[in-house]
Give the backbone structure.
Amino acid sequence: MMAPSLDTLLSREVAGDEAARARALAAVRAELARPVPVRGWRTQAARLLGVSVALTVAVAGVLWALGRTSGEVLWAHAPVLALLWATSAVCARAALAPRRQVLQRAGLGLALVGAAALVLARDSVQAPSALPEWICTLSQFGVGLVPGVVALAALRGAAFHPRRALLGGLSVGTAGAFVGELACAQGRHHVLLYHLSAWALVSVTTLVVSRFLTPRSFAP
C-alpha cells in the first residue's frame, strides 16, 4: 500500500476538540493583545552603566566608612577611575547598539587602554599583604557578576553576537577593577595577574552564558 503524498496529508482536516481549539486561540489572542514594554538600546545601555556606577559608588562608600580608603586615595586614583567609568559607558553602548562596528572597535580599544592604565599606574614594588593574592580576583569577580546579570538580560534583546557579548562583559567587569583600585595597594605584578584576570573572567563568563541564553528577539 502506497503512503499518501504530502499534498494529500496537507489537504486533510485534522480532527480535534473545537472547544480546546477555541481556548488556545483565545489564549494566543490575549497574549498578542497584552502590552509589552519595549526599551530602546540607549535606555538599556544607560541602565547598565547606571548599575555599575551605583555599585562602585556604594562599595566606595562602604570602604570609606570602614577606613579602607580615603579622599587622598580617591584623588590619587581619580584619572584611572574616570577611565574605567568611560570604558564601561562605551562598552555598554557598543554591546547594545545595533550594527555599530566602529563603536565596538572603540570599546575594545578603550578596554585595552584601561587595562594598561591599571597596571602602569601602580608602583613596581610589591608590598607585603596579610591576605592571599587570589582574594582580589575572587572579590572583584563577585562584584562584576552583580551588573553582569543586568548585562545578560539586556543582551537577550537581540541575536547573540560574540563581540557584543564580550563588550557587555568588559563593561560590567570595570566595576570589580574600580573596587580593586580603592581596596588594594599592591604593585603592578599583582594587578596584572590578579586584577586583570578578574576582569577577564567576568567578560568571558558573560560571553559564555549569553551564548546559551534564548534571545527574546533575533534582531541583529
